[in-house]
Amino acid sequence: MKLSICIPVYNGADTVGTLVEEIIKDYKNHDIEIVLVNDCSPKDNSAQVCIELAKKYNFVKFIDLRKNSGEHNAVMCALNYCTGDYAAIIDDDLQNPPLEILKLVDEAQKGYDVVFAKYHKKKHNIFRNFGSKINDIFATWLLEKPKNLYLCSFKLISRPVINEIIKYKGPFPYIDGLILRVTRNFSSVFVEHKSRENGKSNYTLGRLVHLWLSMFVNFSIKPMRLIMGLGFFTMIASLILGIYFVIDKILNPQISVGWTSLATLILFFGGLQSLILGFIGEYIGKNYLDQNGTPQYTVKNEYNTDIKQ
What residue stretches are annotated with the Glycosyltransferase 2-like domain (predicted)? Predict the structure, then answer.
Protein backbone atom coordinates (compact mmCIF):
# COMPACT_ATOMS: atom_id res chain seq x y z
CA MET A 1 0.00 0.00 0.00
CA LYS A 2 1.28 3.42 -0.96
CA LEU A 3 0.43 6.38 1.26
CA SER A 4 0.37 9.98 0.04
CA ILE A 5 0.65 12.64 2.74
CA CYS A 6 -0.76 15.94 1.47
CA ILE A 7 0.23 19.14 3.27
CA PRO A 8 -1.17 22.56 2.34
CA VAL A 9 1.44 25.12 3.39
CA TYR A 10 0.64 28.72 4.32
CA ASN A 11 3.14 30.79 6.29
CA GLY A 12 4.54 27.51 7.59
CA ALA A 13 8.27 28.03 7.14
CA ASP A 14 8.92 27.46 10.85
CA THR A 15 7.02 24.17 11.03
CA VAL A 16 6.82 22.40 7.68
CA GLY A 17 10.47 21.26 7.74
CA THR A 18 10.05 19.71 11.19
CA LEU A 19 6.80 18.08 10.07
CA VAL A 20 8.37 16.50 6.99
CA GLU A 21 11.35 15.20 8.98
CA GLU A 22 8.99 13.65 11.53
CA ILE A 23 7.02 11.97 8.76
CA ILE A 24 10.19 10.55 7.21
CA LYS A 25 11.35 9.23 10.58
CA ASP A 26 7.97 7.71 11.48
CA TYR A 27 7.36 6.14 8.06
CA LYS A 28 10.84 5.02 7.03
CA ASN A 29 9.55 1.46 6.55
CA HIS A 30 6.48 2.49 4.55
CA ASP A 31 5.93 3.32 0.90
CA ILE A 32 5.10 7.03 1.07
CA GLU A 33 5.16 10.24 -0.90
CA ILE A 34 4.78 13.72 0.55
CA VAL A 35 2.95 16.38 -1.46
CA LEU A 36 3.58 19.96 -0.35
CA VAL A 37 1.50 22.78 -1.82
CA ASN A 38 2.52 26.33 -0.95
CA ASP A 39 -0.54 28.57 -1.16
CA CYS A 40 1.52 31.66 -2.03
CA SER A 41 2.57 32.33 1.56
CA PRO A 42 3.04 36.12 1.87
CA LYS A 43 4.82 36.45 5.22
CA ASP A 44 7.74 34.03 5.14
CA ASN A 45 9.98 31.88 2.96
CA SER A 46 7.77 28.79 2.97
CA ALA A 47 8.44 28.23 -0.72
CA GLN A 48 12.21 28.14 -0.25
CA VAL A 49 11.93 25.72 2.70
CA CYS A 50 9.77 23.41 0.59
CA ILE A 51 12.16 23.64 -2.36
CA GLU A 52 15.05 22.52 -0.14
CA LEU A 53 12.98 19.58 1.12
CA ALA A 54 12.12 18.55 -2.46
CA LYS A 55 15.81 18.75 -3.43
CA LYS A 56 16.79 16.64 -0.42
CA TYR A 57 14.15 13.92 -0.86
CA ASN A 58 12.96 12.75 -4.27
CA PHE A 59 9.70 11.41 -2.81
CA VAL A 60 8.74 14.91 -1.68
CA LYS A 61 6.69 16.64 -4.36
CA PHE A 62 6.37 20.41 -4.14
CA ILE A 63 3.90 22.60 -5.99
CA ASP A 64 4.27 26.36 -5.57
CA LEU A 65 1.07 28.25 -6.40
CA ARG A 66 1.25 31.55 -8.21
CA LYS A 67 -1.45 33.23 -6.10
CA ASN A 68 -3.28 32.55 -2.86
CA SER A 69 -6.33 30.41 -3.58
CA GLY A 70 -7.37 29.13 -0.14
CA GLU A 71 -6.72 25.98 1.85
CA HIS A 72 -9.30 23.82 0.09
CA ASN A 73 -7.96 24.80 -3.34
CA ALA A 74 -4.45 23.91 -2.17
CA VAL A 75 -5.71 20.53 -0.95
CA MET A 76 -7.39 19.95 -4.32
CA CYS A 77 -4.05 20.67 -5.97
CA ALA A 78 -2.33 18.11 -3.72
CA LEU A 79 -4.99 15.49 -4.46
CA ASN A 80 -4.47 16.03 -8.19
CA TYR A 81 -0.74 15.38 -7.83
CA CYS A 82 -0.79 12.51 -5.33
CA THR A 83 -0.51 8.89 -6.51
CA GLY A 84 -1.07 6.82 -3.36
CA ASP A 85 -3.72 4.25 -2.57
CA TYR A 86 -4.70 6.56 0.29
CA ALA A 87 -4.12 10.26 0.80
CA ALA A 88 -3.78 11.70 4.30
CA ILE A 89 -4.46 15.43 4.57
CA ILE A 90 -2.65 17.07 7.46
CA ASP A 91 -2.03 20.73 8.38
CA ASP A 92 1.47 22.18 8.52
CA ASP A 93 1.19 23.49 12.11
CA LEU A 94 2.38 20.33 13.96
CA GLN A 95 -0.83 20.12 16.00
CA ASN A 96 -1.50 16.67 14.52
CA PRO A 97 1.36 14.19 15.19
CA PRO A 98 2.15 12.41 11.88
CA LEU A 99 2.19 9.00 13.57
CA GLU A 100 -1.56 9.39 14.18
CA ILE A 101 -2.10 8.84 10.44
CA LEU A 102 -1.63 5.12 11.10
CA LYS A 103 -4.81 5.13 13.22
CA LEU A 104 -6.69 6.49 10.21
CA VAL A 105 -5.11 3.89 7.92
CA ASP A 106 -6.01 1.02 10.25
CA GLU A 107 -9.61 2.21 10.35
CA ALA A 108 -9.76 2.70 6.57
CA GLN A 109 -8.57 -0.86 5.97
CA LYS A 110 -11.76 -2.08 7.59
CA GLY A 111 -13.43 -1.05 4.35
CA TYR A 112 -14.14 2.67 4.77
CA ASP A 113 -13.72 5.17 1.93
CA VAL A 114 -12.88 8.11 4.20
CA VAL A 115 -11.76 8.32 7.82
CA PHE A 116 -11.96 11.61 9.73
CA ALA A 117 -9.95 12.39 12.82
CA LYS A 118 -11.74 13.50 15.97
CA TYR A 119 -10.41 14.81 19.26
CA HIS A 120 -11.15 14.22 22.92
CA LYS A 121 -10.11 17.84 23.42
CA LYS A 122 -9.25 20.33 20.70
CA LYS A 123 -6.30 22.60 21.41
CA HIS A 124 -7.44 25.40 19.10
CA ASN A 125 -8.22 28.87 20.42
CA ILE A 126 -11.77 29.84 21.43
CA PHE A 127 -12.46 31.65 18.14
CA ARG A 128 -11.37 28.65 16.02
CA ASN A 129 -13.42 26.22 18.14
CA PHE A 130 -16.48 28.47 17.85
CA GLY A 131 -16.02 28.66 14.08
CA SER A 132 -15.74 24.87 13.88
CA LYS A 133 -18.97 24.51 15.84
CA ILE A 134 -20.83 26.87 13.51
CA ASN A 135 -19.36 25.05 10.52
CA ASP A 136 -20.58 21.73 11.95
CA ILE A 137 -24.13 23.09 12.39
CA PHE A 138 -24.26 24.45 8.85
CA ALA A 139 -22.81 21.25 7.35
CA THR A 140 -25.41 19.13 9.15
CA TRP A 141 -28.21 21.28 7.73
CA LEU A 142 -26.87 22.01 4.25
CA LEU A 143 -24.99 18.82 3.38
CA GLU A 144 -27.06 16.33 5.40
CA LYS A 145 -23.99 15.39 7.39
CA PRO A 146 -24.65 12.86 10.18
CA LYS A 147 -24.84 14.74 13.47
CA ASN A 148 -22.30 12.47 15.14
CA LEU A 149 -19.68 13.04 12.42
CA TYR A 150 -17.07 15.75 13.02
CA LEU A 151 -15.67 17.17 9.78
CA CYS A 152 -11.98 17.54 10.47
CA SER A 153 -9.25 18.88 8.19
CA PHE A 154 -7.12 15.91 9.30
CA LYS A 155 -8.48 12.98 7.31
CA LEU A 156 -7.65 9.98 5.12
CA ILE A 157 -9.23 9.45 1.69
CA SER A 158 -9.11 6.30 -0.43
CA ARG A 159 -8.01 6.35 -4.06
CA PRO A 160 -11.49 5.68 -5.60
CA VAL A 161 -12.91 8.67 -3.71
CA ILE A 162 -9.90 10.84 -4.64
CA ASN A 163 -10.52 10.02 -8.29
CA GLU A 164 -14.12 11.22 -7.95
CA ILE A 165 -13.25 14.36 -5.98
CA ILE A 166 -10.68 15.63 -8.48
CA LYS A 167 -13.29 15.52 -11.25
CA TYR A 168 -14.61 18.73 -9.72
CA LYS A 169 -12.99 21.64 -11.55
CA GLY A 170 -14.94 24.56 -10.10
CA PRO A 171 -13.05 27.48 -8.53
CA PHE A 172 -14.68 27.14 -5.09
CA PRO A 173 -14.10 23.60 -3.79
CA TYR A 174 -15.16 22.48 -0.33
CA ILE A 175 -13.43 19.16 0.32
CA ASP A 176 -15.87 17.80 2.90
CA GLY A 177 -18.81 18.77 0.69
CA LEU A 178 -17.24 16.87 -2.22
CA ILE A 179 -16.66 13.85 0.02
CA LEU A 180 -20.29 13.83 1.17
CA ARG A 181 -21.40 14.02 -2.47
CA VAL A 182 -19.31 10.98 -3.36
CA THR A 183 -19.73 8.56 -0.45
CA ARG A 184 -21.48 7.87 2.83
CA ASN A 185 -19.07 5.08 3.70
CA PHE A 186 -16.95 6.91 6.26
CA SER A 187 -15.77 6.57 9.83
CA SER A 188 -13.82 8.53 12.44
CA VAL A 189 -11.24 7.74 15.10
CA PHE A 190 -9.85 9.63 18.07
CA VAL A 191 -6.35 11.05 17.63
CA GLU A 192 -4.06 13.25 19.67
CA HIS A 193 -4.21 17.01 19.19
CA LYS A 194 -1.34 19.20 20.37
CA SER A 195 -1.28 22.87 21.26
CA ARG A 196 0.15 25.22 18.65
CA GLU A 197 3.80 25.96 19.41
CA ASN A 198 4.60 28.38 16.60
CA GLY A 199 2.65 31.28 15.13
CA LYS A 200 -1.10 31.61 15.16
CA SER A 201 -4.01 30.14 13.26
CA ASN A 202 -4.45 31.36 9.69
CA TYR A 203 -8.23 31.03 10.02
CA THR A 204 -9.48 34.60 10.31
CA LEU A 205 -13.13 35.63 10.39
CA GLY A 206 -12.91 36.50 6.71
CA ARG A 207 -11.60 33.04 5.80
CA LEU A 208 -14.33 31.36 7.85
CA VAL A 209 -17.02 33.44 6.15
CA HIS A 210 -15.53 32.55 2.75
CA LEU A 211 -15.62 28.87 3.71
CA TRP A 212 -19.26 29.10 4.85
CA LEU A 213 -20.27 30.87 1.64
CA SER A 214 -18.60 28.13 -0.41
CA MET A 215 -20.64 25.60 1.52
CA PHE A 216 -23.87 27.62 1.15
CA VAL A 217 -23.66 28.48 -2.50
CA ASN A 218 -21.73 25.65 -4.15
CA PHE A 219 -23.10 22.59 -2.43
CA SER A 220 -26.70 23.29 -1.48
CA ILE A 221 -29.82 25.14 -2.64
CA LYS A 222 -31.31 25.11 0.86
CA PRO A 223 -30.38 28.78 1.50
CA MET A 224 -32.48 29.74 -1.54
CA ARG A 225 -35.38 27.75 -0.18
CA LEU A 226 -34.92 29.41 3.20
CA ILE A 227 -35.03 32.84 1.56
CA MET A 228 -38.17 31.87 -0.35
CA GLY A 229 -39.77 30.72 2.89
CA LEU A 230 -38.68 33.93 4.62
CA GLY A 231 -40.19 36.00 1.83
CA PHE A 232 -43.46 34.08 2.01
CA PHE A 233 -43.59 34.45 5.81
CA THR A 234 -42.90 38.19 5.53
CA MET A 235 -45.65 38.57 2.94
CA ILE A 236 -48.19 36.79 5.13
CA ALA A 237 -47.09 38.74 8.22
CA SER A 238 -47.40 42.01 6.30
CA LEU A 239 -50.88 41.08 5.09
CA ILE A 240 -52.02 40.24 8.62
CA LEU A 241 -50.55 43.46 10.01
CA GLY A 242 -52.15 45.48 7.22
CA ILE A 243 -55.58 44.03 7.97
CA TYR A 244 -55.05 44.65 11.68
CA PHE A 245 -54.08 48.30 11.16
CA VAL A 246 -57.07 48.94 8.89
CA ILE A 247 -59.52 47.40 11.37
CA ASP A 248 -57.86 49.21 14.27
CA LYS A 249 -58.18 52.55 12.41
CA ILE A 250 -61.87 51.92 11.68
CA LEU A 251 -62.61 51.04 15.29
CA ASN A 252 -60.45 53.85 16.69
CA PRO A 253 -60.55 56.83 14.29
CA GLN A 254 -58.75 59.04 16.79
CA ILE A 255 -55.48 57.08 16.42
CA SER A 256 -52.87 59.26 14.76
CA VAL A 257 -50.63 57.70 12.17
CA GLY A 258 -46.98 58.10 13.18
CA TRP A 259 -43.87 57.98 11.01
CA THR A 260 -41.93 55.66 13.36
CA SER A 261 -43.78 52.50 12.35
CA LEU A 262 -43.56 53.48 8.69
CA ALA A 263 -39.79 54.12 8.90
CA THR A 264 -39.27 50.85 10.75
CA LEU A 265 -41.17 48.89 8.11
CA ILE A 266 -39.27 50.58 5.28
CA LEU A 267 -35.93 49.78 6.90
CA PHE A 268 -36.97 46.20 7.65
CA PHE A 269 -38.19 45.41 4.16
CA GLY A 270 -35.29 47.29 2.58
CA GLY A 271 -32.82 45.20 4.59
CA LEU A 272 -34.71 41.99 3.78
CA GLN A 273 -34.67 42.76 0.06
CA SER A 274 -30.96 43.55 0.18
CA LEU A 275 -30.29 40.24 1.96
CA ILE A 276 -32.31 38.29 -0.60
CA LEU A 277 -30.66 40.06 -3.53
CA GLY A 278 -27.26 39.47 -1.95
CA PHE A 279 -27.83 35.71 -1.74
CA ILE A 280 -29.14 35.59 -5.29
CA GLY A 281 -26.16 37.66 -6.44
CA GLU A 282 -23.76 35.28 -4.67
CA TYR A 283 -25.25 32.31 -6.52
CA ILE A 284 -25.21 34.11 -9.87
CA GLY A 285 -21.72 35.55 -9.35
CA LYS A 286 -20.12 32.23 -8.42
CA ASN A 287 -21.90 30.50 -11.27
CA TYR A 288 -20.55 33.20 -13.62
CA LEU A 289 -17.00 32.74 -12.32
CA ASP A 290 -17.36 28.98 -12.74
CA GLN A 291 -18.67 29.28 -16.30
CA ASN A 292 -15.99 31.85 -17.05
CA GLY A 293 -13.32 29.22 -16.41
CA THR A 294 -11.85 30.67 -13.21
CA PRO A 295 -9.12 28.16 -12.21
CA GLN A 296 -9.01 26.37 -8.86
CA TYR A 297 -5.32 27.24 -8.62
CA THR A 298 -2.45 28.32 -10.84
CA VAL A 299 0.94 26.64 -10.56
CA LYS A 300 4.08 28.75 -10.53
CA ASN A 301 6.69 26.02 -10.08
CA GLU A 302 6.70 22.31 -9.32
CA TYR A 303 9.41 19.95 -8.14
CA ASN A 304 9.73 16.14 -8.34
CA THR A 305 6.26 15.85 -9.88
CA ASP A 306 7.63 14.12 -12.97
CA ILE A 307 9.44 11.40 -11.01
CA LYS A 308 7.82 7.99 -11.34
CA GLN A 309 6.80 6.89 -7.87
Answer: 4-134
pLDDT digits (tens, 9 = 90+) for 190-233: 999 887 666 666 666 666 666 666 666 666 667 777 777 777 77
d(CA 18, CA 90): 13
List of E strands, 13-113:
31-38, 60-65, 86-89
DSSP string, 209-237: HHHHHHHHHHH-SHHHHHHHHHHHHHHHH
* Cβ atoms of residues 219 and 143 within 8 Å: yes
Per the CB < 8 A criterion, the answer to whether 33 and 61 are in contact is yes
- Chain-centroid distance of CA 22 in Å reads 26
Alpha-carbon span 279 to 266, nearest angstrom: 20
The DSSP letter of residue 38 is E
Q: What is the DSSP letter of 99?
A: G
Q: What are phi and psi of 300, to 5 degrees?
A: -90, -50
The C-alpha torsion from 202 through 207 and 208 to 212, rounded to 10°, is -150
pTM confidence score: 0.79
Residue 20, CA distances (Å) to 13, 60, 161, 230, 259 in order: 12, 9, 25, 50, 67
Distance CA 23, CA 26 (A): 5
CATH entry 3.90.550.10 includes domain 2-204+295-303:
yes
Query: pLDDT per residue over 249-298, tens digit each?
Result: 777 777 666 655 665 677 677 777 777 777 777 778 777 777 777 899 99
CA distance 239 to 7: 56
Q: How far is residue 299's CA from residue 81's CA, in Å, rounded to a whole number?
A: 12
- Residues 6+ away with beta carbon under 8 Å from 109: none
